[in-house]
């Protein structure tokens, strides 16, 4: 007799009362800062997918995939109840690679490589110029919001500090990537020059 695969339903109905379960089983309100944090992280990851679906160079697509995978790791960290992070046998509930200093250095090295090919920035730049560049700027601003929420959570219940550092560096990376995409797509960078009184 063959093993029959039992389909898993997407809907559970367990959240109908406005609560959701963390990794480990603890139920919290859906507006809890922890849920806001990893929910916004999911929004960021979705925008990065949209950016990756654009007609951009192969290297940037590979980097974005690597980033998206790392955001899933951060999401798992944020979605884990700290009080249930360690199992009864003493092992960590999350049996995955966390965010390392190498992951952060990777983003910094990517920025340095792009910066070498870009003209120096002398003014703030208005987001836009090309739809792909705009998607990158939207991703950057959602990354900043994710970081703000994660920082608020960290002040209440600390988690891995490297996860916060990664989000901070990622928004910088996305800004530099937007500039690089502007160059590749020959989109004009419009400088913001304040009007004098």
From TrEMBL:
The keyword Nucleotide-binding belongs to this UniProt entry's keyword annotation: yes
Pathway: Cofactor biosynthesis; adenosylcobalamin biosynthesis; adenosylcobalamin from cob(II)yrinate a,c-diamide: step 2/7
Source species taxonomy: Bacteria, Pseudomonadati, Bacteroidota, Flavobacteriia, Flavobacteriales
Organism: Leeuwenhoekiella aestuarii
Catalytic activity, reaction form: 2 cob(II)alamin + reduced [electron-transfer flavoprotein] + 2 ATP = 2 adenosylcob(III)alamin + 2 triphosphate + oxidized [electron-transfer flavoprotein] + 3 H(+); 2 cob(II)yrinate a,c diamide + reduced [electron-transfer flavoprotein] + 2 ATP = 2 adenosylcob(III)yrinate a,c-diamide + 2 triphosphate + oxidized [electron-transfer flavoprotein] + 3 H(+)
Keywords tagged on the record: ATP-binding, Cobalamin biosynthesis, Nucleotide-binding, Transferase
One Gene Ontology term from the biological process aspect of the record: cobalamin biosynthetic process
Family: Belongs to the Cob(I)alamin adenosyltransferase family.
All residue ranges annotated as the Cobalamin adenosyltransferase-like domain in the record: 10-180
EC number: 2.5.1.17
Recorded coiled-coil stretches: none
Pfam families on file: Cob_adeno_trans
The protein, known as: Corrinoid adenosyltransferase
Quaternary structure and partners: Homotrimer.
Molecular function GO terms recorded: ATP binding; corrinoid adenosyltransferase activity
């Amino acid at each position: 007799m063959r093993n029959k695969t039992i389909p898993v339903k997407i809907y559970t109905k367990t959240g109908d009362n406005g609560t959701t379960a963390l990794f480990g089983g603890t139920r919290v309100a859906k507006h809890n800062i922890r849920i806001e944090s990893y929910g916004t992280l999911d929004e960021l990851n979705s925008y990065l997918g949209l950016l990756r679906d654009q007609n951009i160079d192969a290297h940037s697509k590979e980097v974005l995939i690597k980033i998206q995978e790392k955001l899933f790791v951060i999401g798992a960290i944020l979605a884990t109840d700290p009080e249930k992070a360690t199992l009864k046998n003493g092992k960590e509930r999350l049996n995955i690679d966390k965010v390392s200093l190498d992951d952060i250095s990777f983003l910094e090295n990517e920025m340095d490589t792009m910066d070498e090919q870009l003209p120096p920035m002398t003014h703030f730049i208005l987001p836009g110029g090309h739809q792909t560049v705009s998607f990158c700027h939207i991703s950057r601003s959602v990354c900043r919001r994710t970081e703000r929420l994660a920082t608020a959570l960290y002040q209440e219940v600390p988690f891995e500090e490297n996860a916060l550092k990664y989000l901070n560096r990622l928004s910088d990376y996305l800004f530099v990537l937007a500039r690089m995409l502007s160059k590749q797509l020959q989109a004009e960078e419009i400088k913001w020059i304040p009007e004098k009184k």
